[in-house]
Amino acid sequence: MYNNIPVNKEIITFLSSLNANCGFIDRMKINFRPLICPMRDLLKWADGANSVLDLGSGSGQFCALLSRYSNVKKIHGLEINQELIDNSIQLLSGIKNEKKTLFSLYDGHNLPDYISEYDVVYMIDIFHHIPKAKQIGFIYTLFQKMKLGGRLVFKDIDRGSIWVYFNKLHDLVLSKEIGNEISYNNAILLVKEAGFTITQSFKRQIYCYPHFFLICKK
Ligand SMILES: C[S@@+](CC[C@H](N)C(=O)[O-])C[C@H]1O[C@@H](n2cnc3c(N)ncnc32)[C@H](O)[C@@H]1O
Question: Which portions of the chain are predicted below pLDDT 50?
């Protein structure tokens, strides 16, 4: 399946073709995020899954890609920002297929019990937006709530890289906040301590962004 996913240029054309009645910044993030965040690569860890939960789904761009390019039948975006959920609902309404997609609001801390219904949970660049004091508890609770055998795809920005300051600048300009990034090494320790087994882990620099990927199993 993964080999059939088109290159970034086509993904961007697809996202740009979807309607979302949102502001300029959100529209730019929808259209061009695949240039700086490896969304195309992230899709491959949905292979074989029936259901996916995208934790911190933003304006729904990754859910839109799952709907268009994966075989996943049920896609659920979970967000703390109602405006982004509204963007997502509108964005996905332009994709006509049999897949079930839904978006839910939550408070950012009390993870819902229905997490246990999903085969794969994605966390794409949300960890560094969680307050530092809550980050460890968040991962421990996520482990408790996920189903046995479930996969966690944890992608974030490596605090251990000097390039982390570029991401901080990015967040300051676009989100008016300074991120709480964790280093790749500490992220590995954290998920292991929480109980996950790591099946794959690696770092990848894209332009000025030092990404890390942890593919974990409960
Ligand atoms: C950098 S954006 C990434 C959005 C999306 N995952 C993507 O890659 O396009 C970070 C998102 O995390 C959300 N967020 C922040 N804290 C969160 C939390 N505790 N739980 C879930 N989402 C959160 C924000 O509202 C924002 O949409």
Answer: none
